[in-house]
Amino acid sequence: MNPHKAAVFLLCLAAVCRAGADIVLEPPVFHGAARSALYRENWPEDNGGVVYCFLRNTGPAPEKVAELLLNGKAPGEWPKLSWWRVWPESLAPGGTGCLTLKATGDPFAKGSTAELALVMDSGAQAAVSFPCETPALRLANALPAPEPGTLLLYLRNDGKTPAEVRRVFLNSREWAPGVDAGLSAVGGSYTVPPGGLLILELAHGDAPAPGAPLNLRILADAGETAVRVGAGIRLTAAEFPIGTWSSNMIQSPGGQRHARRLGIDACVSYTDWPAQEAMFANYHIRTLNICARQAGDPPQKEPDTEQVAARAGAAHIAAWMVRDEPDLHGIPAARMLDHALDHWRHDPDTPAYLNLMSMSGFNEYGPTADIACMDHYVMHAPNAIPRTGITRHARLEEALEYTDQLKANTEPVRMWTWAQLAAPVWGRQPENWGVKHQFWSHVMGGAKGILWFKYGPDYERDHPEQIRAAENTVRAFNAVRTLCLYGEPLDALKSDDPEITGRLLVSRDAVVVVVLNNNYTTGLFPFRSSYTLKSSSGTVSFPLPGWVPPERAAAVTAAGLVPVEPVLKDGTVSLRVSINGAARVFLIGRQDVQAPDTPGRVVIAGRDEKGATLSWPVPRDNCGVFSYEVLLNGEPVDTTPFPVYTAAMPGAYTVRARDAAGNASPPTEPVLVAF
Questions:
Q1: HSE on the CB side for 489, CA within 13 Å?
Q2: Based on the domain organization, do 268 and 349 belong to the same domain?
Q3: For the CA atoms of 603, 604, 605, 611, what is the dihedral angle to 10 degrees?
Q4: Residues 6+ apart with CB under 8 A from 24
Q5: Is 597 inside a domain boundary?
Q6: Are 319 and 292 found together in one domain?
Q7: Same domain, 463 and 581
Q8: Measured distance CA(24)–CA(26) in Å, rounded
Q9: Beta-strand relationship, 81-87 and 96-103
Q10: Tens digit of each residue's pLDDT (9 = 90 or more) over 239-292
Q11: pLDDT tens across 85-122, in order?
């Protein structure tokens, strides 16, 4: 559309809308690109942002967007317009959709006003203008609750003024606090205090399928100012995977068995479908599948949509991996969007996942997929500072800093991260305490999936210290895995020791407190390949949300929960902390009286000279499954921290899951082992 036609269109548009257009555009939500003060990475001075604009079809027929105008110009006339999409692509009568758009700088320069206009394929037209200002109130996360048909919405207030929720919208439905059934606030108050968190429970009554569009809008008042927040995302399953990059693992049942003994339940893979299905059937390990027309590492070609469609909804595929590090390889974000859309169209049930490398690409690429992920390794892993020619070894704090930037630029998109384990390309492997430090850095930053780089069949032999560090870390993590999944990070912890930092993961029933020891030394810049950790001690304090009862307090360890005695005064918790290693983790909250679900069917995954390997899927628990009790002919004979066990004696084996509080599930159905 040329400028003259655009001007005529905009002049006529208001009259069309007043006459009752079939498409209504609601005021958009603008998320400006977050920028790190520590890492320039040659960013533009104004990296623009992402806009979420919601559409409602008030007409009697389906509608599709035929044309977009931004400030009167078509997309091709805006060189800084990176990408845009409308999902769902077709709006049913009475339905809603979300237009998501990314631009850099002008027209999304900070403080400017932009105008969006749409022409539908029916000829219906609508327009809306909005300020390019990021609200202090953020929709930080949205995920399905354990209760069917309920969504949990997490609102964080980064401003200085309390915000009061007035309306909540999900797709075509609306709720008002205290008026409409199905909407409730954890703790009873709909006010989000400055620096605080509000968890909303939205019981919408149905159970949308995975991949269903969630057009979420929330209206609030911050003093005299009306605030609008929200986003258009797709529903993804409430789960916290522990994965790895080891495509050759699917060819090694021994590697799969050892991987389960590290808690690994997902693995990057390509297109060996029978091996993938066998790995899932025997060891319950799903794939993060790269399905491209030409494989490689990373794959360089377009998605093989025929193969994706043929395996739509397959149980063994946890996510389709759109691409690894497209920002590093200079592949435009618009192409990643096209690939993600191809996956959505051909397999709407399975999430699309995208892995990134540089902070400057997080806002550009991250919102294109269902799950945004990044890799940044800090110990003995040379990091090239983009476009500087400088290579240096990193500060340990960067694991958290990069996680923070990914979340700030993509929320409420689900976030995973890669954590450093071991890799031949590094030469010297990370210290075992560094493995733990990086893992918990990602968790405390809000990651909802941790992927180890990397694990393979030979790593038990080649890197035993790193493998044991990962095993012990995940053992402790499993005690609070569900609480971390449903916990939203708050940077509200204070310490009297500057080398101790921490975050809260706040959920409905508890607060998980992650405390890091940053008392380490390294060489001068550029950093030498040496890290030395010293112990730290001090007192940390943090506010306890009013809805979290301090019924139990414990340190979370690989051996279980160890009671501690915090001081609670005027709603503030104080803990004396000594850290001889990388991190300490604490749990404060409600007494846990809920037993885990019964594990799924126990299978004989394989046999060797030691006996029969038994495997079973991890059941649900409100806090996390910590261990399993193995019974032979109805009598307890052993415990195991992970869902795999070698049965050396014949007989009928059953398994009970236990949480860290000692609650036990009913036993599974028996599996008969004979020799």
A1: 22
A2: yes
A3: 150
A4: 55, 56, 58, 126
A5: no
A6: yes
A7: no
A8: 6
A9: antiparallel
A10: 999 999 987 888 899 999 999 999 999 999 988 999 999 999 999 999 999 988
A11: 999 999 999 999 999 999 988 788 878 899 999 999 99
Strand positions, DSSP E, 358-507: 371-375, 383-385, 390-392, 414-420, 450-453, 488-490, 494-495, 500-506
Distance CA 218, CA 169 (A): 6
Give one DSSP letter per residue of 46-113, joined into a string: ---EEEEEEEEE-SSS-B-EEEEEETTB-GGG-TTEEEEEEESSSBPTT-EEEEEEEE-STTS-TT-E
β-bridge partners, 531: 522
pTM (global) more than 0.85: yes
Alpha-carbon distance 548 to 587, whole Å?
A: 11
Q: Is residue 579 part of a domain?
A: yes
Does some domain include residue 598?
no
Angle, CA 573 vertex, CA 135 and CA 193 arms, to 5°: 20
Query: Residue 429 carries which side chain, given as an amino acid letter?
Result: Q
> Does residue 497 sit in the same domain as residue 640?
no
Query: Do 220 and 267 have their domain in common?
Result: no
Residue 619 is assigned to a structural domain of this protein: yes
Classify strands 317-324 and 352-356 as parallel, antiparallel or unpaired.
Answer: parallel
DSSP character at residue 250: G
Residue 45 sits in a domain of what CATH number?
2.60.40
Strand order in the sheet with 65-70: 65-70, 113-120, 125-131
* Beta pairing, strands 414-420 & 371-375: parallel
Hey, how many other C-beta atoms are within 10 angstroms of the C-beta on 567?
A: 11
Q: Which structural domain, as residue segments, surrounds residue 635?
A: 603-673
Domain-ending residue, one of 591, 618, 644: 591
| Cα-to-chain-centroid distance, residue 83 | 22
Q: How many domains does the chain have?
A: 5
Is the N-terminal amide bond of 213 cis, ω within 30° of 0? Answer: no
User: Do 263 and 222 share a domain, yes or no?
Assistant: no
- For residue 605, give both structure tokens: 């995954």
* Residues 404 and 256 reside in one and the same domain: yes
DSSP letter (8 states) at residue 300? -
